[in-house]
Amino acid sequence: MKLPRQILCPDGKTEVEHTPDSSRARSSWVVRSFTNRLAEPLRRLLAGDSLGEAQVKAEEKKKDNKDSRAVSALKLEKRASEFGEMVVMKSEELDRIMVDEQGSIKRQKVEGAVHVVDDDQQGSSLQRRRRQLQPRGDCPYLDTVNRQVLDFDFEKKCSVSLEKLDVYACLVCGKYYQGRRKNTHAYTHSLEADHHVYINLQNEKVYCLPDGYEILDPSLDDIRHILNPRFTVEQVAQLDKNRQWSRALDGSDYLPGMVGLNKLQGTDFMNVTIQSLMRVTPLRNFFLIPENYQHCQSSLVQCFGELTRKIWHARNFKGQVSPHEFLQAVTEVSKKRFCIGQQSDPLEFLQWLLKALHAELKNSKNNSVIYDCFQGELEVMKETDGNTGDDDVLMEKSRMSFLVLGLDLPPQPLFKDVMDKSIIPQVPLFDILKKFDGETATEVVRPQRAWVKYRVTKLPKYLILHMQRFKENNFFIEKNPTIVNFPLKNLELKDYIPLPRKIEKSPSKYDLIANLVHDGRPKEGSYRVFVHRKSEELWYEMQNLHVSETLPQMVALSEAYLQIYEQHH
């Protein structure tokens, strides 16, 4: 015997099939469904029951609600890409609007209770999303910040794309990444490495990724000070009086302003030049306040100022500083004349650096902090042979400014002593300064043979002297080992160089603040510098990362190559 089948009708009810003909059962259900729908209106019509005004208004209101609900559904559909997933009511069916990764909208039928999202609920979702992006001070990932690996001395560019815009530093591993929005390198790194705290290298704001909210916590201020050291005018004024040592994170002690500089393969000539310029007080004070040069967009000026602030910062995480970013700017601006991995002359680098900084900082009167510190003036008298006869002499008088005074050393003796050892001559500084007394003539060959006399007519605040130790011939470069005897304090120039009357009353006494020395052969040697610390009246020897206190007598016994004297008031 064949059992009857149950048929699922479109209204959700089931009908039992009593005949083998399923089409007959379906037809009977359609007739009953149509009859049931018309039964109530027919009953009211036959009974003479008409709809009242209240019922008409209720029907109209119901229709208006349907229309407004449809409009809300369309609005939600348009904003589905912003919220990812929404639920809207359409007729009596519930649709789920989803946005896939390509941005296309998909609908999914939802069974169960009816849930309607209107405009008010949509606004609350938007407000909830905005609240999630508001700055917070209770980030749960602050304990993952690792200060030991943070190093902001390198060039600020993304480690993946090498871009320099919108770069963030991961405070967990110390690497640089670009961007913080979805699909950026920083965002991807936060998901892959589970590192969540990042700082913007430009505006110093700290964010939690991938959530995207800003972190406001005072415990991160020390990192901001390392990224961009700050000084007040009062702090700058007290630098030369401060005797306090600072302590790095590894427990080592260091002196602000006396920190070592990392050597980047053949860059010791740059390091000693930088350490020497850090002793020039007006130049240092100028670059410690960024507002003094904020109008200048030159990367060389900005990097030199940042390096100056890091050297003199008392809250460094390390006891040394890397000049990598500054050297990158030097390489770019000098068009690879001075670059990492290539040894150069400190004199050439010093002259180029001073002129490049002046060119970027000069005002309408062609003046800058560089010229205020180092510029002096010479009177030059040039005698050349005339073309009319042997006794005819042409005299030419002119004035020229200078940043560095070059001093000629006496030639090295050709003979050895009785012990068969080379004789190292010594010469007082006052003897080689006679070149600028206005009476001693110096022979020059280029552009034509002539005799030149020099006379100092204006003394700078900081006098740079250069001992010309290296001479290049057709075969090799020779180094003159002559020892120059010089005083560390109270170098009185007017006793050895006649000065014009208008500057006789101006200070002419100088104190040594930096002595740059060359050791070894001309091409294979290295450079170190002796610098003076004013707060303690002590001398320190510095060579790359090596910093140690030394005796004043050791400074005077060295083969001086460049010296910086400060005018004594």
TrEMBL record:
Q: Which organism is it from?
A: Linum tenue
Q: Which PANTHER family match?
A: U4_U6.U5 TRI-SNRNP-ASSOCIATED PROTEIN 2, UBIQUITIN CARBOXYL-TERMINAL HYDROLASE
What family is it from?
Belongs to the peptidase C19 family.
Domain named UBP-type: which ranges? Answer: 137-234
Query: Keyword Nuclease on this protein?
Result: no
From the Swiss-Prot or TrEMBL record, give the protein name: Uncharacterized protein
Q: Which SUPFAM superfamilies match?
A: Cysteine proteinases, RING/U-box
For biological process, the GO terms are: protein deubiquitination; spliceosomal complex assembly
Q: Provide the Gene Ontology terms for cellular component.
A: spliceosomal complex
| Residue intervals of the USP domain | 259-568
